Amino acid sequence: MTRRASRIPGDARGLWWAGGLLGFALSGFFDGILLHQVLQWHHLLSGLEAVASLERLVLWDGLFHILMYLVGLLGLGVLSRERRATAQPGAGRALLASALIGFGLWHLLDAVVSHWLLGIHRIRMDSEMPLLWDLVWLFLFGILFLYLGWRTASARRPPDSSGGRAIGFCLVTAALITGPLAALPPPDSTTIVLFKAGTSPLQVFAALDAVGGDLVWSNAEGTLWAFDLVEDAPASVFYQHGALLVSGGFLAAACLNWTRS
User: Fold this and answer.
1) For residue 142, which of 129, 125, 157, 123 has the smallest C-alpha distance?
2) Inter-residue contact 251 to 201 (CB < 8 Å)
3) Are residues 197 and 170 in the same domain?
4) What is the value of pTM for the model shown?
5) Are residues 50 and 32 in the same domain?
6) d(Cα 104, Cα 175) in Å, to the nearest integer?
7) For residue range 103-131, what is the model confidence (pLDDT) as tens digits?
């Protein structure tokens, strides 16, 4: 650890935190977008029998993404504070290595804590060999990325004299792209809307009339609804009628509705 740090200027060591936090957040977005939404292999709490309702599964997936937003914003804040250090030789290596390590660390923690200790989900819930999928995923996106980060950090070649602004720009761009993508549903999917308790059916159907579409399903409590919307319908309109979370909408807007009770 001392040999690695000696290659990086003292005023650039904060970049390790910035890169690590951004890599960690990007790893969470990668998992959420690919496994929760595109492949739909699991939800965050798919392994808990007590959380059997789709309403709670969707809600906890949304809260998970909010947590990744907070980690990513923290990483962006640290990177902004250390922006002058990105011009120093070795800064690019520090950012890249720490981002790779942060990415791999997320999958390592997810496998050990979420899959094996808590059992809240597995990589493929429908597999007859869930441990095999867990181990393959852990190797590809956990151990391999940790190794690449370690190799990048411990490389004996001289630090890049061009600094780390290009790597920093790539990390910021990736965070700004994957963040909104985490709020989008899979292509051609039904829009799921979670309303706050006490929202009347009249309010729900008023929102549906405003955007256009058809009702697919709703739960007995009248809080979780599924709609087939017309193409390019502004699903964000549901937030104006008491929605807490909308698949395909920005989660930050939904947070405001938690205070309207």
Assistant:
1) 123
2) no
3) no
4) 0.71
5) yes
6) 16
7) 999 999 999 999 999 999 999 998 999 99
